[in-house]
Design a protein that fits this description.
Layout: H1 11-24, E1 36-38, E2 45-49, E3 63-66, E4 69-72, E5 76-79, E6 82-87, E7 90-93
């Protein structure tokens, strides 16, 4: 999914790349929302990474979330959000959270 994110990319294509990966891992039936959105004056605004938004072109200097999530009925789910600044040649990741698995 991240490889497709750059100025001029279509939000539906970015979403499809993430959705395809999740499907290949066997979790496609548990992924039922968009993959991310713009951040600005409102926390959820365009452009969007999702299957329902048409004419959704990503532009340089957009600030975007990438937040696919998988939700298993009766068990729960997880969604990890990365925030990106779209740059001339791709993106700069501005989220610095640790991703190490902690088992309690």
């Amino acid at each position: 999914m991240f490889k497709t994110i750059k100025p001029g990319a279509d939000g539906q294509e970015v979403d499809a790349a993430g959705r395809d990966y999740i499907q290949q891992q066997g979790f496609g039936n548990y992924y039922n929302h968009g993959s991310g959105h713009g951040i600005g004056l409102d926390i959820h605004e365009g452009p969007n990474f999702g299957p329902r938004w048409k004419s959704n072109v990503i532009e340089e200097n957009n600030v975007m979330t990438v937040e696919p999530g998988i939700y298993l009925p009766g068990k729960g789910g997880v969604r990890i959000e990365d925030d990106l600044l779209i740059t001339k040649n791709g993106y700069e990741q501005i989220t610095t959270a640790d991703r190490d698995l902690i088992i309690l």
